Amino acid sequence: MTTQAGGCPFHGNAAIIQTTAAPVRGSGGEEPATVSPDAADYPVADWVDVAALATDPYPTYARLRAESPVAWVPQLNKFLVTTYAGCHTVEQDQELFSANVSGATMTRAIGAQPMLRKDDPEHSVDRAPVNPVLRPKSIKEVWGPVFERNAEAYLQKVAELGPEEADLNRDYAAPVASQNLIDLLGLKDVSVEQVRRWSHDFIAGMGNVLDDQSIWDRCDAATAEADRLLEELIPYYRQNPDASMVSAFANSGLPTANVAANVKLTISGGMNEPQHVVTNMVWALSNHGDQREQVLADPALWASVFDEAVRWQSPIGMYPRETTRETVLGGVRIPAGAGVGVVVASANRDAGHFGASAAEFDINRTKRPHLAFGSGVHLCAGHWAAKTSIGQIAVPMAYERFPGLRVDKRRSESWDGWVFRGLTSLPVTWN
Fold first, then answer.
1. Within 13 Å of residue 196, how many CA atoms lie on the same side as its CB?
2. What end-to-end distance do the CA atoms of the chain give, in Å?
3. Which of 95, 135, 341, 346 is the most exposed place for a label (fewest CB within 10 A)?
4. CB 311 within 8 A of CB 370
5. Residues 377-400: pLDDT tens digits?
6. Is the bond preceding residue 121 a cis peptide, omega within 30 degrees?
7. Statement: residue 116 has pLDDT above 70
8. 256-286 vs 289-297: helix axis angle to the nearest 10?
9. What DSSP element (H or E) covers 102?
């Protein structure tokens, strides 16, 4: 059971303390913060098994929601917030729950503080240049044809491999997501493999709370490569502007360090999440044949499939915040300076918000807001690009190209992660 208070490092101590719980890899990518003590009691969920989270986090999320929706988890050195109401409250109050968390490994990983680790007004200043690039009209008219070309190119490669060998993650989801990102950013003279490696290395660095030097070495090498490219691209786009994101950043007046940090942030998140949504949608439809037949008969339902897939298997499971002063959330007193994990993957299965069927995949459920793309000022800037490139183009085109597309049960699939979660292998076949 989740216990009350006894072992909590904030409990009953009048002195300022440094928490001593050992952080673990994948705890949200930030170092533990120094916090002020408090005399209040806190639910302590010391039973949380981080290895089990990486294997399948949903049983742990269900227990946390039932026993202690706001709980101190010493293994992670954070308060985890697991209900929709709690996560939504955190997201709506950046003055109290700051994105500028202490000791951010994200900043270490990409060499400067990106917009995701800033609150307004600094956050909005960094984000404003790319908002026009990512608006629905621009995505549809400028980038839609590019996304279709990329999907067609890699569907041909899948066809050449055939229904006995193709892996949807390796052969389609990853390269399509990488090429879409290369084009949207306006990167030049880079390969899909190079950008995929950069993305994976940046993500590894952001989660390197155990300070593994080998991970820093990988991350630093990727950062150096990306910085060398940006040293050429930023002045190029100042002389030759176009519709790409790097061009928008380069001509925004932002300092070069801000531009480079935000481009590397985009490389990190702009590939992993779209890649995982491609495979999640096909996996979900393969395991719900009636709903697959429904959407194939009515393509207007692809938007519902996308929305339900990102709710049900959220590619981003948790992100960190830090309290700027003492507060009470869900009846639990949280000290100033405490690390908070906003577990959106759990919030997106909260029966209190989505009803008794919250844990089920159902494209026909009554539409309710979810947190797969965040909320408030940090709502993902690329969510329209993801909906179009994946939900309206990449996955529907795959089903058009390969009748009977489905998971190949003769070969093994694999999932990994909970802070970032997705299929790392998805063998598929077709008729």
1. 18
2. 49
3. 95
4. yes
5. 888 888 999 999 999 999 999 999
6. yes
7. yes
8. 110
9. none
- Judge whether residue 37 has pLDDT over 60: no
Give dist(CA 402, CA 34) in Å, integer: 54
In angstroms, rounded to a whole number, what is the distance separating the alpha carbons of residues 22 and 13? 20
Helical spans, DSSP H, in 240-392:
245-250, 256-286, 289-297, 302-312, 344-347, 351-354, 383-386
Distance, CA of 82 to CA of 129 (rounded, Å): 33
Quote the DSSP letter at residue 183: H
Cα–Cα dist 163/150, whole Å: 20
Q: Give yes or no for a contact between 37 and 16, defined as CB atoms under 8 angstroms apart.
A: yes
Q: For the chain, what's the residue count?
A: 431
Residues 6+ apart with CB under 8 A from 136: 384, 388
Residue 415 to residue 426: CA distance in whole angstroms:
9
Give Rg (Cα) of the chain: 21
Q: CA-CA distance, 305 to 278, in Å (whole number)?
A: 11
In a 13 Å sphere around the CA of 220, the CA atoms on its Cβ side amount to 7
pLDDT digits (tens, 9 = 90+) for 213-248: 998 999 999 999 999 999 999 999 999 999 999 999
Q: Is the pLDDT of residue 22 over 60?
A: no
Distance CA 419, CA 287 (A): 24
Question: Which residues, at least 6 apart from 213, have a Cβ–Cβ distance to it below 8 Å?
Answer: none
Q: What single DSSP character describes residue 367? A: P
Tokens 């007193």 locate to: 333
- Asked whether the predicted pLDDT for residue 10 surpasses 70, the reply is no
Q: Tokens 């207007």 belong to which residue?
A: 300
